[in-house]
Specification:
With 483 residues, the chain is of the alpha/beta class. It has 13 helices and 19 strands. It starts with 24 loop residues before the first helix and ends with a strand. The protein binds S-adenosyl-L-homocysteine (SAH), iron/sulfur cluster and FE3-S4 cluster. FE3-S4 cluster binds next to helix 2 and helix 6.
């Protein structure tokens, strides 16, 4: 057996009842202790210890990964792009079955890598871990996993890692409910010039198909002062674009001690100097207020882009989905938004093959897609999530019917999206440059305010800056431009 690691003994345990009770102090205490162990191991091995955090889910999942990476950096680990690292942490998603399958598949590979590198640590966290059957399955079939924690106690990562290092035993720490929001923990941004900012956690909506409320718990809003302070810090650090994150940002602030609306939060964020673009995700149509439309129109930094999940165009299905709006209300809302903000770019999420979906229901979805003219849409095949009301339904739709509808929807979405994109050709618009182009040397890639991608020739030094670009050619989903 390969012995390439410093062995930690119980006697190394320095956490002798003196850990602070308060958060985040407690976690900083554990980060310092982990760091000592990491340094000892590094000395023994004569090389730095590395980590890789892999994101499987949505923007909120990605934001959590940045926090986890922040903790590991504070513990003295070095970040690595690939998973051939001393510590690999999977931040899982369970919104659809294929998200779960991806995790199991990758974990299989990781397990065989670990056979050759038995010193490595493998951790699992995120939404999947909030499901009991998943944790059972991992315990039985993936015994090489070293530690597991859930979404509610993610702030305890340093403490959990320390426990694993000291005891050399698998640690499983998943709790059913979130007890607090812990502020001021480290975070390591993936991009230097843009960042997500949590404004709330959890979801109270219980859409009939969706597992998120079960794995993310009830809605909790962050204090506006904490949000603004974080954004001010980001701005001071050179961040130009922020994305305010929540499962339903339109119900932000309702259960704060001093309630505040999302529209008013947006106005406050708009005042932060240095920030040039503000985005937010996701807006539930049922809670989108006139005041928010007003705020979007008047706040100069708020991008004229709205992600407004439709899910279905059929009023009958929307009722069954527990979405609290119908086809007509959704279309009326879109009209109102277009009137107030004529250059608004609209994107959406649509589910095909929800239980009981008839051809007529589906045609209603197509009808809304045509009437709204989305810039783009994420289309999903309905996935049965156990524990949700829709999973119990007996009228699940046969696969071939779903695929046929999915293809028709995708075609419509793409055709209309390309038409919409074509309209901007020739215009000169601001682009936030994000990276070097992956495919062609000399090109960089950036995004318009409406989130569309533009490739153009420029010096790499413009990365992170907002520059004016003329859109020369529309390629359907993206543009070729000229600075
Ligand atoms: N809070 C956001 C969405 C979060 S999940 C909202 O309410 O809009 C992102 C998207 O995944 C959803 O909008 C929905 O379209 C899709 N989704 C959720 N559960 C699903 C399921 N069981 N099957 C297929 N798609 C699903
Ligand atoms: Fe899921 Fe609905 Fe909550 Fe969105 S609003 S996370 S779709 S339950
Ligand atoms: Fe997935 Fe959890 Fe996000 S289930 S979509 S990572 S909230």
């Amino acid at each position: 057996m390969e012995m390439d690691r410093y062995e930690i003994k119980e006697s190394d345990n320095r956490a002798n009842g003196s850990a602070p009770e308060q958060e985040p102090e407690r976690q900083y205490y554990y980060m310092a202790l982990v760091k000592e162990l990491v340094q000892k191991q590094e000395k023994e091995l004569g090389r730095p210890l590395t980590f890789c955090v892999t994101t499987f889910g949505c923007q909120m999942n990605a934001k959590d990964s940045e926090k986890l990476a922040g903790v590991l950096l504070s513990c003295g680990y070095q970040e690595k792009e690939d998973e051939e690292a001393d510590l690999v942490l999977y931040n899982t998603c369970t919104v659809r079955e294929n998200a779960d399958n991806k995790v199991y598949g990758r974990l299989g590979y990781l397990g065989s890598y670990k056979k050759k590198h038995p010193h490595m640590l493998i951790g699992l966290c995120g939404c999947m871990m909030q499901e009991e059957p998943v944790v059972e399955k991992i315990k039985q079939s993936y015994s090489f996993v070293d530690f597991i924690f859930g979404t509610h106690n993610i702030y305890k990562f340093a403490e959990i890692l320390y426990k694993r290092l000291i005891t050399e035993k698998r640690v499983i720490d998943v709790v059913k409910e979130a007890d607090k929001i812990v502020e001021e923990l480290p975070s390591s941004r993936k991009y230097s010039f843009k960042s997500g900012v949590n404004i709330m956690f959890g979801c109270n909506n219980f859409c009939s198909y969706c597992i998120v409320p079960y794995v993310r718990g009830r809605e909790r809003s962050r204090n506006p002062k904490d949000i603004i302070r974080e954004i001010e810090k980001l701005a001071a650090d050179g961040v130009k674009e922020i994305m305010l994150l929540g499962q339903n940002v339109n119900s932000y602030g309702k259960n704060l001690e001093d309630p505040m609306t999302f529209a008013d939060l947006l106005r406050e964020v708009n005042k932060v100097e240095g920030i040039q673009r503000i985005r937010f995700m996701t807006s539930h149509p049922k809670d989108l207020s006139d005041d928010l439309i007003q705020a979007m129109a008047e706040c100069d930094k708020v991008c004229h882009h709205l992600h407004l999940p439709l899910q279905s165009g059929s009023s009958r299905l929307l009722k069954d989905m527990n979405r609290h709006y119908d086809k007509e209300q959704y279309l009326a809302l879109v009209e109102k938004i277009k009137k107030a903000i004529p250059d608004i770019s609209l994107t959406t999420d649509i589910i095909v093959g929800y239980p009981g979906e008839t051809e007529e229901d589906f045609l209603d979805t197509l009808d809304v897609v045509e009437k709204v003219g989305y810039d783009s849409a994420y289309t999903f095949i309905y996935s049965k999530r156990s524990g949700t009301p829709a999973a119990k339904r007996e009228d699940q739709i046969p696969e071939d019917v779903v695929h046929d509808r999915f293809d028709r929807l995708l075609k419509t979405v793409q055709t209309l999206g390309a038409k919409k994109a074509e309209q901007l050709t020739g215009q000169r618009l601001p682009v936030l440059v994000e990276s070097l182009n992956d495919h062609e040397e000399g090109l960089v890639t950036g995004r318009l305010a409406n989130n569309s991608v533009v490739h153009f020739a420029a010096d790499p030094s413009v990365i992170g800056q907002i520059v004016d670009v003329t859109l020369k050619e529309c390629k359907g989903f993206y543009y070729l431009g000229e600075m």
